[in-house]
Write a structure and sequence with these properties.
With 463 residues, the protein is α+β, with helices and mostly antiparallel strands. Helix content is 38%, strand content 19%. The chain contains 15 helices and 19 strands. A hairpin with a 6-residue loop joins strand 18 and strand 19. The chain starts with a helix and ends with a helix.
Length: 463
Amino acid sequence: MKSTTKRAYALYALVAFFMAGIIFFVSTLTINASSWALSRYNKHIYDGNTLNVAGSIYDSKGELLVGTQDGQRVYNDNQTIRKATLHAIGDSDGYISTGIQSVYSDELIGYNFINGIYSISKYGTGNNIRLTLDADVCATALNALNGRKGTVGVYNYKTGEIICMVSSPTYDPENKPTDINENPNGKYDGIYLNRFLSGVYTPGSVFKAITCISAVNNISDIFSQTFYCDGSIDIPGGGEVKCSGVHGTVSFKDAFAHSCNCAFATIANELGADALAATANELGFNKAFKMGDTVIAKSSFDVSSVNNTDLAWAGIGQYTTLLNPYHMMTIMGAIANSGNPASPYVVKTIETPDGKIIDETKTQNVGQLIEPETADTVRDMMRYNVTSYYGDWQFPGLEIAGKTGTAELDGGQESHAWFTGFSTKEDCPLAFVVVVENGGSGYYEAIPVANTVMQAAYKSISE
């Protein structure tokens, strides 16, 4: 009897060991099957380290951005379009980690867990991807940057479709520079970084839009207050904040239009660190975002241990604050759309080689980032910025609402030039962001870029 019991226990142990092995195998297969199938050693997919068989990527108008021909990846015929869309679609070697060719490699190759890479055997290629981008608008944006480092983004805040996403510096994927790894004189600094998705910058005065939102929410008499600016202000407890001009006595609305540092330093201290931090966090600072399968760089705002002077600088977009352009564009979409913008996206559809849609992105809203009344109030203030100060003549036919930023940097570097905002035209629901790295004045350097790109984007959605 004891012998039979021992045999039973041994059998149970053997069965348990066998089942554990099965579970381990299935788990390992589930986790690693994709990476095994898509390994760069797989000669069906890669030639050396370069992707040589995959579906095509198209822009919103059906323009081919990249495809496979004779076992090689080939890009658009137009050099400017190739360079303008490089960071969005990515390179064939995978250096641009946020590019569609890297993030959506499974889909482009046609891999799935059940059938593996059967699509390649059947069709000789993988799935095709159609983007929301307009290649011509992207080319316009790259030309407007005119060789300067920076980024431009435009999206439809009603639908979420990103029409333009450009990062500079860039290069021609059909003729990659031979000295790119040597990087002479920093010419190619951040060349593989999509600055729109992965860059973070000192925001400067564009952050005053966030301070504005916080003030409208938390200071009941903000619109009846006035502020005095003689070019600088002494902060209680020691410290000084300088302004870019001498504005005299200004209202809250005019302080925002003229980007008065003295006024906004005062407002930041009246708000206090807790209220300003709460608004920033509600708007998505210190949180991770994803656009489809792509992770967005996190904007940061920390005033947990500041004195009055630090808080004043934080309220005008300096101190340690860092802002991601994609995130700022989404905030602009929130202000434009009564506090609840559509989530930005760039992949519209994924289709099999015979044209069957297997995945399609639908419009989804981010959620109520800002109370509707507050959003509409700040929307009107941003429109006033343009009509009273920047000038509608700079944006013919667009009805732009916006805010400039000239973000001061340490070490004697030239300031980053920002301009961000949106159109208030009913038939032009577009929000935008422009950053020209070390460009100097947001007014003189970023505004012209924004107008050029927005004119092209408005034309694109009107066709």
